Amino acid sequence: MKKIVFLILSSLFFIPVFAQKARKYSNEFLNIGVDAASMAMANSVVASVDNVNAVYWNPAGLMQLQSKQIALMHASYFANIAQYDYGAFAMPIDEKSAVGFSIIRFGVDDIMDTTELIDQNGNIDYNRINMFSAADYAFAISYARNTPIEGLSYGANAKVVRRIIGKFANSWGFGFDAGLQYHSKSGWQLGVMARDITTTYNMWSINKKEFEKISNAIPDQNQELPETTEITLPKLQLAGARKFYFNKDFSVLTALGLNVEFAETKAIISTKGFSLYPTFGVEFAYTDLVYVRGGIGNFQKNMQLDGVEKVEFQPNIGIGFHYKGIQIDYALTDIGDQSAAIYSNIFSLKLDLDIFSK
């Protein structure tokens, strides 16, 4: 336990060292989120997640698992141009520990490569157009364990990031996440999730031959090779949650999150050293069979066409059905196009594998 806390604190201490080398937006596909139920609640689930999807939100939550589970999710972004897919498996090892595995893919397929569209004689030949994909992958192994303190658990992710841009460039990246979760006897739930705690490095390999083709295809442009090292700064998520029971059939889960980025962004609270933005989520449940969810997040200050700065936000809603270990969830993000983000329809499935052994 002390080692985990020390690792989180020490990683935050070293953030200024890498601040000048790191990019503000790096490996952004890992910040989208997973699970329609969680995204309907505006990602405010770091404290309350208690199923297989804890491999992403907070690995410490894996200690709430009672059986083996798998999860699948699919979403389309940018008018179905980009496809986002996620799969995970998790299981308890014993009463004190649990383990999980996950994979994420965000990709754009069937992109036209027109670098050889014009042949040596200056003729346009459409047969010279090739198709390629630009895809980002993340593979993670998660481990969680209870501490001697009742209700307190910790967890960590070791992840590998693979990014491929056709035959033009590719990269490998490595990083770690760590989380804590506390469940009090009074019903309050608290969570902390630190992503990329040691910074995540992506090392790019660029095909110089293909890069020259791109440079030659753009006249009067002095193209230089981009940097081959990409560093992702840590991010911190703090959260609290509480479930209230109206009677034996109806309950409501309320959740609040605070996301911290160690860079200046468009968040409503932003300085040169860090940015803060809150999230709010709620889930109404009927006999743990039907769920209705809602959430607000992604608060940002964006400049309008008239030069006036406006605070925008992202409202989400969703529904879910749970029956005998099978849970199907749906979320609609950014209702009414209230933020700069593009709305998306998200579907996910969670399956308790114990239903096959009964």
Distance between the termini: 37 Å
Name the CATH superfamily assignment.
monomeric porin ompg
Overall spatial form: globular
Record field, number of beta strands? 17
Low-confidence residue ranges: 1-20
CATH topology: Porin
Protein name: PorV/PorQ family protein
Keywords: Signal
Signal peptide: 1-19
Organism: Myroides indicus
Briefly summarize what is shown.
This protein has one domain: Porin, CATH 2.40.160.40. It is built from five helices and 17 strands.
Written description of the protein model:
This protein is mainly beta. It has one domain: Porin, CATH 2.40.160. Helix content is 10%, strand content 52%. It is built from five helices and 17 strands. Strands 1-2-3-4-5-6-7-10-11-13-14-15-16-17 form a 14-stranded antiparallel beta barrel. A hairpin with a 5-residue loop joins strand 14 (290-303) and strand 15 (309-323). The longest helix has 12 residues, at 2-13. It starts with a helix and ends in a 6-residue tail after the last strand. The model is unreliable at 1-20 (pLDDT under 50).
Annotation keywords:
mainly beta, 14-stranded antiparallel beta barrel, Porin, single chain, disordered N terminus, 358 residues
Question: Topology of this protein?
Answer:
Layout: H1 2-13, H2 15-18, H3 36-40, H4 54-57, E1 69-77, E2 82-94, E3 97-113, E4 130-146, E5 152-165, E6 169-183, E7 188-195, E8 200-206, H5 208-217, E9 229-232, E10 235-245, E11 250-261, E12 269-270, E13 275-286, E14 290-303, E15 309-323, E16 326-333, E17 344-352
Antiparallel strand pairs: 1-2, 1-17, 2-3, 3-4, 4-5, 5-6, 6-7, 6-8, 7-10, 8-9, 10-11, 11-13, 12-13, 13-14, 14-15, 15-16, 16-17
